[in-house]
Amino acid sequence: MLPMHIQENVLLAPMTTFNIGGPARYFVEAENIDNVCRAVEYTESRSLPLFVLGGGSNLVISDSGWPGLVLKIAIKGFDRRSQSGKTLFEVGAGDDWDNFVFRAVSSNCAGVECMSGIPGSVGATPVQNVGAYGQEVGETIDSVQVFDLKIKRVRELCNEACGFSYRTSIFNTSERDRFIILRVTYALEPGGAARIEYADLKKYFAGRNRRPSLAETREAVRQIRASKAMLITPGDEDCFSAGSFFKNPVLSREQFADLTQRAAAHSLDVPTYPALEAQRKVSAAWLVERSGFHKGYIQGHVGISHKHALAIVNRGGATAADVLALKEKIQQRVEEIWGIRLEPEPMFVGF
Predict the structure, then answer these.
(1) Given 113, 136, 175, 345, which residue is catalytic?
(2) pLDDT tens figures, 100-145
(3) CATH of 237-349, one of 3.30.70.20, 3.40.640.10, 3.40.50.1100, 3.90.78.10
(4) Which residues contact 154 (CB under 8 A, 6 or more apart)?
(5) Is the predicted pLDDT of residue 81 greater than 90, yes or no?
């Protein structure tokens, strides 16, 4: 038997920011790498499907839950060292992401300040190459320590091996379900300047005659996120969500030209910004709102945040089926009107 407590029929909803989801047949919390290895052995010896749970902030768990073992990574730890002009922060996958950002900013190290206030754990950030307000973790990750389920050993993956792109990595594409993330090392710039490139931040700091500090930028990001119900705030009815539910579409020139023509027919201009070479990234929130799904929209027990059109919200007593119904309705309407298929950001578990 494992020297750790394996629970049965544990409700997963309270472990998610959506507060939605059925039970895990088996559940265990691993606080060290040895227990992760033992949990894997447990699932294989019993032919159980394995799901690795982080902070529960970017996923939708099915109403039937998970039929195998849910492994919650609770590995903590924080180490800092200097290397080649950078400050390296090695952080446990179970540590809270925003706490790490706070410590990095407090150490006057730039590179993650614009990602302040994002809920969830450190280990979840490489999976979707988490980003906000002009920064992505893939820009600063030096390496990721993983347990490789294919070869059954702990490995270190360098940045290039992770295959970071917009909201993707090998962890959610080509090598999905192969790796369990244990620790992440970030290479930040000591004394670096805050990144003020995103429109919301430029507007927030408009009129200043000096560049904001890292701490000021962090506070600004948190305030902006709070205004959009993208900051977990007790008592805020719009906070029971998985965050931004749809990715901003990245379009080819041809797709963008088609969208522009459709918008012109409605006497509208499409807000965009350069994303990739010869491509355009378009606001998913703009597409959602211009398809009839306004802020505060309600459909039964689910709806759209009063503060941000991209957040599908649990209004109380919602099920995963309710969420999927609204998701599919939005996708269908946007595609009918604008010719674009929105792709969801959260991970779907147990469907």
Answers:
(1) 345
(2) 999 999 999 999 999 999 988 999 999 999 999 989 999 999 999 9
(3) 3.90.78.10
(4) 33, 145, 146, 147, 148, 182
(5) yes
Please tell me the predicted confidence (pLDDT) of residue 1: 43
User: Domain 78-227: which CATH class?
Assistant: alpha beta
**Catalytic (active site) residue 328:** no
In the residue annotation, 244 being an active-site residue is answered as yes
Angular region, 304: left φ>0, alpha ψ -120 to 50, beta rest: beta
Q: Which of 136, 167, 183, 290 is catalytic?
A: 167
**Which of 151-160, 202-211, 321-330, 336-345 shows the lowest mean pLDDT across its residues?**
202-211
Residue 210 has a pLDDT of: 86
Tell me if 330 sits within 8 A of 291, measured CB to CB. Answer: yes
**What fold characterizes domain 7-73?**
3.30.43
225 is catalytic: no
- Map out the domains of the chain as residue ranges: 7-73, 78-227, 237-349
* % residues pLDDT > 90 (the chain): 78
CA distance 59 to 66: 13
Which of 244, 290, 291, 305 is labelled catalytic? 244
The stretch 244-249 carries a mean pLDDT of 92
